[in-house]
């Protein structure tokens, strides 16, 4: 499979392509299901989660599917009270604000917490193996980004609760990271056992940190997860550290097989910092999918051209998730264009 080969550093005839958030609100068939079911219902019913995972594959034929779930729903099993509010995104009604709150968080097994996601992975994998040559990706949130949501309670610009907790309650912060690392290693390994052929770790909020803060508060838990998963499985691990160009040299040391990069740095710059051994994924600005094809097409061409000049394994993707406002024909044409491209032409 092109996708798994690329993550392993092998350059096939063309780059494989998938889009982060390819399943979701940009698709009318997702919105139709969503009109009848709450977000958490879609995640908790394996048949529905499998259906949503497959929707973009049927429509566009990407080279990889990502299991439909969220980085936050597993935290319900730790005792977090999660709500997806219409319009304002995810919210925890009982944010973590004291050392006692951290002590109360439970670390249960993935089989107890997210059996439905593990079942959905098996269902999707059966269909993909039977009908498509498409790889299946499992995923989890990285501890720093999970801590951000747990402590803030929802998206927050300055993240003052989070940063105060990091500095004022160092011992509890460490306990929180340890609990999240412990669960996440188990969760990713369980996803692999259930059918995931690669896993991606999402660190969407590390851009809030200085290089020194990243090194101290975020990097150690990422390295621990990568090492823990590597010890028990042999699937490729992709790490996404959003907005991390200021400390990309540290991100490179995560141990991940592949790094997902955003549009704030160029592919060639990332390749130079990463060296040839680490595969790269990205990095089209997702806003382009909402622009005209006349604007988008040359940007796709430029990125493909740039990818010829690096020797790393390369996966075509966006720098962040598909926006709900994206034009469907843009997704379709981009997939077709990448599939028609050849590295050696
Ligand atoms: O297609 C896929 O990528 C797989 C499913 C997936 C979702 N969330 C579904 C979802 C994945 C991989 C995620 C990851 C995720 N979730 C991240 C990391 C990636 C990133 O975007 O930075 C984060 C930070 C979250 C937390 C989260 N979940 C937010 C901030 C939101 C609201 C904003 C938004 O984009 O809608 C969600 C909700 C969510 N997760 C939706 C979907 C399809 C929309 C739910 C709806 O239908 O209303």
Q: What is the typical, i.e. mean, pLDDT?
A: 97
**Amino- and carboxy-terminal Cα gap:** 21 Å
β-strand percent reads 5-15%
Number of helices: 15
Give the C-alpha Rg.
19 Å
Unreliable residue runs = none
Helix content: 40-55%
How are strands sequenced across the largest beta sheet? 1-4-5-6-7-8-9
Q: Find the count of extended strands (DSSP E, 2+ residues).
A: 9
Q: Could you say which structural class the secondary elements and strand pairing correspond to? A: alpha/beta
| Major beta-sheet overview | 7 strands, parallel
Q: What is the H/E string?
A: HHHHEEEHHHEHHHEHEHEHEHEH
Bound molecules: coproporphyrinogen III
Task: Describe the global form.
Answer: globular
Quick summary of this structure?
With 345 residues, the protein is of the alpha/beta class.
Question: Can you offer a commentary on this structure?
Answer:
The protein is an alpha/beta fold. The protein is 49% helix and 13% strand. It contains 15 helices and 9 strands. The strands form 2 sheets. Strands 1-4-5-6-7-8-9 form a 7-stranded parallel sheet. A two-stranded antiparallel sheet has the order 2-3. Strand 2 and strand 3 form a beta hairpin. Helix 8 packs across helix 9 and helix 14 runs parallel beside helix 15. The radius of gyration is 19 Å and the shape is globular. The relative contact order is 0.15. Bound molecules: coproporphyrinogen III. The site of coproporphyrinogen III (CP3) has 20 residues, from strand 3.
């Amino acid at each position: 499979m092109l996708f798994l080969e690329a993550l392993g550093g092998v350059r096939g005839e063309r780059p494989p392509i998938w889009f982060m958030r390819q399943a979701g609100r940009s698709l009318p068939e997702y919105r139709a299901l969503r009109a009848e079911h709450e977000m958490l219902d879609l995640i908790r019913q394996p048949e529905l989660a499998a259906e949503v995972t497959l929707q973009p594959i049927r429509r566009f034929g990407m080279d990889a599917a990502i299991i439909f779930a969220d980085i936050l729903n597993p935290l319900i099993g730790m005792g977090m009270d999660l709500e997806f509010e219409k319009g304002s995104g995810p919210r925890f009604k009982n944010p973590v604000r004291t050392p006692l709150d951290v002590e109360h968080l439970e670390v249960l097994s993935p089989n107890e917490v997210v059996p439905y996601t593990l079942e959905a992975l098996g269902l999707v994998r059966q269909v993909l193996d039977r009908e498509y040559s498409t790889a299946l990706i499992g995923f989890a949130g990285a501890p720093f980004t999970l801590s951000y949501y747990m402590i803030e309670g929802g998206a927050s610009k300055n993240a003052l609760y989070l940063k105060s907790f990091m500095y004022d309650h160092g011992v509890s912060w460490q306990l929180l990271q340890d609990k999240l690392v412990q669960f996440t290693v188990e969760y990713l390994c369980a996803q692999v056992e259930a059918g995931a052929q690669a896993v991606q770790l999402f660190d969407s909020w590390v851009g809030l940190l200085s290089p020194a803060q990243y090194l101290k508060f975020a990097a150690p838990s990422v390295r621990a997860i990568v090492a823990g998963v590597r010890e028990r499985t042999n699937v490729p691990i992709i790490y996404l550290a959003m907005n991390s160009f200021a400390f990309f040299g540290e991100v490179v040391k995560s141990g991940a097989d592949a790094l997902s990069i955003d549009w704030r740095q160029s592919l060639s710059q990332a390749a130079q910092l990463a060296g040839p051994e680490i595969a790269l994924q990205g990095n089209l600005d997702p806003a382009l999918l909402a622009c005209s094809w006349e604007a988008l097409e040359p940007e796709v061409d430029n990125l493909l051209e740039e990818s010829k000049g690096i020797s790393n394994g390369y996966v075509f993707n966006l720098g962040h998730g598909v926006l709900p406002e994206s034009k469907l024909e843009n997704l379709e044409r981009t997939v077709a264009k990448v599939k028609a491209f050849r590295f050696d032409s």
